[in-house]
């Protein structure tokens, strides 16, 4: 029996890793799964665990109110040490580009345990953007044994860095698998009852470290101007629990008419609200991948993206964070139905929703 340990710690890792954990459960006659969460996030991680009804085998409960990258990294390394020693998995799986991803990979390397990297090969090639994610994923890929690249582009990136070609597999992105656990036709939510049903819903998320400060302030100014200029628009903004993000959001957008600041939504609520929205504004990675499946345009609040497939497919547009430009780009999609339709009907380039099973069958092929 193969022993697979999944290790994750934040909301997006959980959303993209739990479909694999559920697939392992289905195959429990031949795979033993061990689930470890670092607790880099707390409430936002627990929301996702609840949706998938998974109780981790180990919870390192590491989150602090003002955690530092160094504190998190050292905490994860030292806590995982004894767990890896006791459990001796055949392989660990990490996901994406967080501090949990890199620190868990390093811990496994010290124990000479093979590493599978889910969502390997995303790159901007810019050391500080996104920070620290670009280095987290590059460093993880130096340590990785099995690369689960979501697309051809991510595979090519890995080949450019001379990683082993025979260990790179295009699997699609497991975020598309996650949509099967959430999208429902009979969805309702408190927020919808507070809105005028004739209004257009814009869903906003913004949390990246490099956007905290002036870029975020500029975008929120654009939102304020937007609702003043466009009376049939309502903005729903589930605010990330980072104290920095909370403070900036409240400073600019508390008590602004038709702007709804709400707590982070559960994955089910977020996906279903996204499906009912007119368009999405976001600097999130995962949102850029799932929105195309829901046929929603995403205006990306960043200077660049490691998800060029979506830009090429026409479903994402990079608009930066400058107030005037953000406002212009949103109004273009509100007023120009051709431009809107072009983005809304582009094809999702991130997979068919069967990535988790694909990843497990590759592991099985190599480790049995
Ligand atoms: C982290 C990841 C980032 C990912 C993001 C997804 C790193 C360095 N960053 O950034 O790559 O895009 O998660 O959301 O790995 N907090 C809570 N409750 C929660 C979650 C966070 O209170 O459930 C607060 C805490 O005060 C915490 C702070 O948010 O200290 C920041 O969390 P952290 O994981 O360090 O950074 P994120 O910005 O969430
Ligand atoms: N998401 C959620 N609730 C929210 C906002 C986002 O469940 O209130 C989900 C969203 O569907 C996506 C994921 O969180 O799958 C993205 O996570 P986040 O933006 O925190 O991180 P990133 O993807 O940028 O690393």
TrEMBL record:
Gene3D superfamilies linked: Glycogen Phosphorylase B
EC class: isomerase
Keywords, sorted A to Z: Isomerase
Keyword presence, Isomerase: yes
Enzyme nomenclature, EC number: 5.1.3.14
Domain UDP-N-acetylglucosamine 2-epimerase: 27-364
Family: Belongs to the UDP-N-acetylglucosamine 2-epimerase family.
Name this protein carries in UniProt: UDP-N-acetylglucosamine 2-epimerase (non-hydrolyzing)
